[in-house]
Write a structure and sequence with these properties.
The complex is a heterodimer. By secondary structure, chain A is of the alpha/beta class. In chain A, about 35% of the residues lie in helices and about 15% in strands. Chain A has a seven-stranded mixed sheet, with helices on both faces. Classes of the chains: A alpha/beta, B mainly alpha.
Chain lengths: ~220, ~325
């Protein structure tokens, strides 16, 4: 635990890299120690670990995923992986907000903001899948409002879009066995919340920032 | 562990091949400094990319010679895996084929190398085609999704046949019992690779020099009749001149080299047609700035099995 990474996390990251044959491209920015929120499309259980393993190890040690509490607390194994191995920030999906729901103000509840402020600290980064659930990979789904609130609350943190390609074919939702095809990961240019930009416009722009990074086209 | 290196004839040929590569490298460096147009730069880059692949082939060949019979199996198993990975990544497979693909990678392909490792040659040559023909459609049918059924079956079958079945005939040459070779089977592998690759590059060179009439220009814009005839004839001549490392007579060697050249051409053409169909130039598009492993070994797909069968039927016991 010299740099704070659980040994199992490093092992799983190596396995995920092997299975996914991931090719990483920093197209819009370079790896950096700056505080960042990486947000990406979500199609597979491998998404987080592949994205995380693509970061240089000193950055990886300070980067935590935001994950759905209901799913990751369901079984002992998932709880162990999320809490101990990857030090995930577990949040209620409902709190992260449905795209159009009026109750997004709940997100601003003090305890959650404190929770996320703690998680970010002074030097940590986060990984977020704003679609909130795994899609089929054909297109990037509508973003939930959590990203907007994070952008609003932490304006100093860089928001880095990322596109994970082909992982939906390697380990799609509902499958247990991986098919070791090759995959691509592209980091885009950081975006920020513009003054007076409203929530839906920002979320759509963020979604566009992710989907524009697709390289091969629909599989 | 170094028996293979005591084979003098093989070492002479392999040494000459390495020398030849060094000379080519010098030529490529010289041409690079002299090239001033885009087309000449592209030609030099084509040569350099072939050179990189040939150094890798030399490396693989040396590894195969080193540690007995298990290494070639492992190495070619890995190459098959990588080739299949590239193929399945770029050929659009269907969501419902997930499990079938899983079996293809982790059971069917290893099975082929297992049969080879056990030296059950009669099984090695028939089990996989039969298995692929019956198992893949059955597995897809069990999955229950019948949309584009035949198309999906064919895509997967072709991928397995090319990357697992056809390629495994390269290491299989090391397992044949050929009385005239006294166990120096590495010569067969070297002979096949030399003739096949020379045919490929000589077709390119002849095509550049005197090529006019296109063959199948929609599939391979670079391939011309002049290049094809010139390349095949000159590679056949070189193959014939290499009879002394083989169990063949010079005439047999010419005929066998001719077969290797023709099938090498066919393999390259078919793989190009697949790439056109998918809409990519190289299978390596997923590997930034390089051609993929399938692009480099496409000419072995058909040539390796035919060479294997010729040697097995006429020269082994």
């Amino acid at each position: 635990m010299n740099n704070g990474i659980h040994p199992l996390a490093n092992l799983l990251a190596a396995v995920a890299r092997g299975i996914s044959g991931i090719q990483v491209q920093w197209a819009g920015c370079q790896p950096s120690q700056k505080q960042r929120i990486y947000f990406a499309n979500h199609t597979s259980h491998l998404d987080f670990i592949v994205l995380w393993s693509a970061l240089p190890s000193e950055i990886r040690a300070k980067t935590r995923p935001i994950a759905a509490k209901d799913y990751w607390e369901e079984t002992a194994v998932r709880r162990y992986l999320s809490e101990r191995v990857f030090k995930a920030v577990l949040v209620e999906r409902s709190v992260l907000g449905k795209p159009k729901s009026p109750d997004h103000s709940k997100f601003a509840s003090r305890s959650l903001i404190e929770h996320l402020t703690d998680a970010l600290g002074h030097e940590n980064s986060l990984i977020l899948f704003p679609e909130g659930t795994r899609g089929t990979g054909e297109k990037v789904g509508t973003f939930r409002s959590g990203l907007y609130h994070l952008a609003h609350r932490f304006p100093q943190v860089e928001l880095v879009p990322a596109y994970l390609e082909n992982l939906n074919r390697i380990l799609p939702k509902g499958e247990v066995m991986p098919v070791p095809m090759l995959s691509l990961l592209t980091f885009g240019k950081p975006i920020r919340l513009e003054p007076n930009e409203d929530r839906d416009a920002f979320l759509e722009r963020a979604r566009e920032a992710v989907s524009s990074l697709r390289r091969i086209g629909s599989a | 562990m170094f028996e293979a290196f005591h084979d003098q004839k093989m070492m002479i040929l392999f040494g000459s091949a390495i020398l030849f590569l060094l000379v080519l490298r010098a030529i490529a460096t010289f041409l690079k400094s002299r090239s001033d147009s885009d087309s000449s730069r592209a030609t030099v880059e084509n040569l350099n990319s072939r050179l990189r692949a040939w150094w890798k082939m030399c490396f693989v060949f040396i590894l195969c010679l080193l540690f007995g019979r298990i290494t070639p199996l492992v190495i070619f198993g890995v190459i098959s895996f990588m080739a299949m990975r590239e193929y399945m990544t770029l050929v659009p497979t269907h969501r419902s084929d997930h499990l079938t693909l899983f079996w293809s990678f982790f059971v069917i392909m290893p099975l082929q190398y297992f049969l080879l490792g056990m030296q059950w040659i009669p099984f090695f040559v028939v089990v996989l085609p039969f298995f692929v023909f019956t198992f893949i459609p059955t597995s897809i049918a069990i999955e229950g999704d019948t949309s584009h059924f035949l198309e999906r079956v064919a895509k997967i079958q072709f991928g397995i046949m090319v990357s697992a079945y056809c390629l495994s005939h390269l290491p299989a040459l090391l397992f044949l019992r050929v009385p005239d070779l006294h166990g120096h089977n590495a010569r067969l592998l070297l002979y096949l690779v030399l003739v096949d690759q020379l045919s490929d590059v000589l077709q390119f060179v002849w095509g550049k020099l005197i090529g006019k009439r296109k063959i199948a220009w929609r599939v391979s814009p670079d391939k011309t009749w002049e290049g094809f005839v010139g390349g095949v004839l000159s590679a056949t001549a070189i193959g014939a001149a290499l009879w002394w490392v083989t169990p063949f007579t010079p005439l047999q060697s010419a005929a066998i080299s001719f077969a290797i050249c023709i099938l090498g051409f066919a393999g390259g053409l078919v793989m190009n047609a697949i790439k056109r169909d998918i809409g990519i130039k190289d299978f390596g598009v997923v590997i930034e700035g390089d051609v993929g492993i399938l692009d480099r070994i496409d000419s072995f797909c058909f040539a390796a099995p035919i060479f294997f069968h010729i040697v097995r039927f006429y020269f082994s016991n």
